[in-house]
Structure formats: structure tokens, C-alpha cells
Design brief:
It is a single chain. A 7-stranded mixed beta sheet has the order 1-5-6-10-9-8-7, sandwiched between helices. It has a 3-stranded antiparallel beta sheet with strand order 2-4-3. About 30% of the residues are buried. With about 350 residues, it is of the alpha+beta class. α3 runs antiparallel to α4. It is built from 12 helices and 10 strands. β3 and β4 form a beta hairpin. Helix content is about 40%, strand content about 20%. Bound molecules: phenylalanine. Phenylalanine binds next to β9 and β10.
Length: about 350
């Protein structure tokens, strides 16, 4: 018996466990129902009375030692459920963490906002679900203008005198700015707009705009032209030229569409500018006096200009993307192309 006790004691001294599983195995081997120490206690019952005194103490000490050692090993290993899973290799490299990138439309919006901030413009935002008044009526759209038609506009509540609808342009934000801001006003309005269009490479039912508005005393068409020229040169390069073509919008008079010289072929003609040397980027004009008056601005004293551009269109020109749908399909292969544009 003495030898057996010494053997177990030596084993206990040597005992080293690396995992919680090994600790548990050792506990079962020593202290379990059929464990070595348990067996010694069984044997102890059969020894002579005078021997009992000799072994009783050492056996109890052995058991206590074994229990303490097992407890302390458990604690050192953390003892929790995670550590119990011996298959986890803690030195293994972690799963790669996919870093997101900014969407090309967000990149272009930020660039445009930064340019106009330098010119002293504030950023204004407004609701995407708007009423007819702010999207059409206050902007001088005649009652039966085709843009109000169900074919172009997504109505939220029809049949109401001032129905709710999804804004078709962010000019509605300019109306809200004129209603609430003190003059002079210099704002740009970036945002999402909605039109009931068939989805194709060149059109989508959701897209993004940045519109701008400047109202003050003595604002002239020359100011408009200069602002657009400066913007185009910041955006597309210092040699960029602009040209204005007469156009029509209900809320501006006179109105113009602006082309920039093609920054790819520099006016020689390529397939991006379809051989013309020019790329159309925005619509603009002098704010119609009716629009100023509708928002309570004295059109005799004040004048202003407005402009609006589609962000997807600018992004398409910038990165030569030929299909608008790429911007909405969340294809990682496309989005990852813009990784390098992340600003940290
Ligand atoms: N609101 C016009 C559009 O959605 C763009 C525009 C804004 C034109 C301001 C002229 C002046 O197409």
C-alpha cells in the first residue's frame, strides 16, 4: 500500500496538463469512481487496524493534494467553456476582416460639396417624401405640366389637392431654403431623387443630384457662368472649358444646359463625347421671379441663379462607367474598383 501511495504521489507531482480536456481526464483517472486514489481508499478499508493509522493520514493528504492541483490547473487554463474546446488553436491567424470602401456616388458627392463649400455654400437637406407644393407648385410648374404626370412621379397619396410624392429633384430643398433662410442664400442640396423611368444603362428610377441656389441683390447671369466655370475647372481640371446651350425649366428664366470640354480627348472627339468634344453635365438658369415671390422673396430687389446635376452622370464621366445600373447593383467586383479612394 505504501508503495502504491508513493507511486500515485509521484505521478501527481509529474502531472502537467495543457488543455482543460487533459485536466478532466486526469481528474477521472485519479479521483473518479474508478480512479487510482478512489481505489486506494477501497483498499484502505481492508487493511489491518494498526496499519490504518499509518496510511489514513497520507491517503487523505494525497487526495487533498490531487484535488488542489486539479483545481489550480483548471483555474490557470481559464476554466471556461471556450477553453474547454481543446481543438481551438489560439496561435492561428484570424479571419480576414473585409474593409469597406466608399461608394463612387458618395465620393463624387463629397468632392462637389467640398468645392462649393470653398465658394461659401452651405449644405441643405430636405425630405425625400415631399408634397406637390415643394416639388412642383412653388417651382412654377403649370398645373398640367407633364413632369407631374403619373409616368414621371411616384405618388404616395394621390387624389389629394397637395399630394405626397417622392421628390423628382432636390429643387424642393431650395424652396424650403428660400422659405426658411435669411438672405442672402447660398446653398447646395445633395440628395436622392426618384422618377418613374424604365431602368436601362442610361436611366434609373433612383438617382442622386446636387442642386445649388444663390439668391442676393444684383445676382446676374455672369455670376452663374463664373460659378459654373470655376466648379467645372475644380472638378474636371484647370483647362476645362464650358459652353452653355439655351434650354427650358419652369423655375428658371433664362435657362441653359452646360457642357464641359471632353477631358478624355480634349475636344478632338472620342466615343465618350460621341465625337462632339463636349459632355453635358448640368442644367441651370436665373431663378424665375415667380419662384422667388412664391417663397416670399421680393423679386424686384433680389435675383438668383440655380443649377442641378446628376451625380451618377458625373461619376460616369469621371470613371468612364458606361452603365448606370452598376451603381445600384452592389456588385463587389465593381465597388472594389474604388477602394483606393478611401480617405483614412
Ligand atoms: N431641377 C432640375 C432637374 O431636376 C435641374 C435644374 C436645377 C435645372 C436648377 C435648372 C436649375 O433636372
Amino acid at each position: 500500500m505504501k508503495q502504491k501511495i508513493e507511486k500515485v504521489l509521484a505521478e501527481l507531482e509529474e502531472l502537467k496538463c495543457k488543455t482543460a480536456k487533459e485536466v478532466e481526464e486526469a481528474r477521472v483517472r485519479l479521483l473518479g469512481k474508478k480512479g487510482e486514489i478512489t481505489a486506494l481508499f477501497d483498499e484502505f478499508r481492508t487493511v489491518d487496524k494498526d496499519m490504518k493509522r499509518e496510511f489514513g493520514k497520507t491517503l487523505n493528504e494525497l487526495k487533498q493534494k490531487a484535488q488542489e492541483k486539479i483545481e489550480s490547473m483548471k483555474e490557470n487554463l481559464g476554466g471556461d467553456a471556450a477553453a474547454a474546446d481543446s481543438s481551438a488553436d489560439l496561435s492561428m491567424p484570424g479571419d480576414p476582416f473585409e474593409l469597406g470602401s466608399r461608394h463612387p456616388v458618395s465620393i463624387v458627392r463629397q468632392e462637389i460639396v467640398d468645392i462649393f463649400r470653398k465658394f461659401g455654400y452651405d449644405v441643405a437637406e430636405g425630405p425625400e417624401v415631399e408634397d406637390d407644393y415643394h416639388v412642383f407648385e412653388a417651382l412654377n410648374f403649370p398645373p398640367n405640366h407633364p413632369a407631374r404626370d403619373m409616368q414621371d412621379t411616384f405618388f404616395v397619396s394621390a387624389g389629394h389637392p397637395n399630394p405626397l410624392l417622392l421628390r423628382t429633384h432636390t429643387s424642393s430643398v431650395q424652396v424650403r431654403a428660400m422659405e426658411s433662410m435669411k438672405l442672402p442664400i447660398r446653398v447646395i442640396c445633395p440628395g436622392r431623387v426618384f422618377r418613374n423611368e424604365a431602368i436601362s444603362a442610361r436611366a434609373h428610377c433612383i438617382f442622386h443630384q446636387v442642386e445649388g441656389l444663390y439668391v442676393d441683390e444684383n445676382v446676374t447671369f455672369a455670376d452663374l457662368k463664373q460659378a459654373i466655370l470655376l466648379f467645372a475647372r475644380e472638378m474636371f481640371g484647370p483647362d476645362t472649358e464650358i459652353r452653355m446651350r439655351p434650354s427650358y425649366f419652369p423655375f428658371t428664366e433664362p435657362s441653359a444646359e452646360v457642357d464641359v470640354s471632353c477631358n478624355i480627348c480634349h475636344g478632338k472627339g472620342c466615343n465618350i463625347c460621341k465625337g462632339t468634344g463636349w459632355l453635358e453635365i448640368l442644367g441651370c438658369g436665373m431663378v424665375d421671379p415667380n419662384v422667388l415671390e412664391a417663397s416670399g422673396i421680393d423679386s424686384k430687389k433680389y435675383s438668383g441663379f440655380a443649377f442641378g446635376m446628376g451625380l451618377e452622370r458625373i461619376a460616369m464621366l469621371k470613371w468612364r462607367v458606361n452603365d448606370l445600373r452598376h451603381y445600384f447593383e452592389n456588385d463587389m467586383r465593381f465597388l472594389k474598383e474604388f477602394n483606393s479612394s478611401i480617405e483614412v
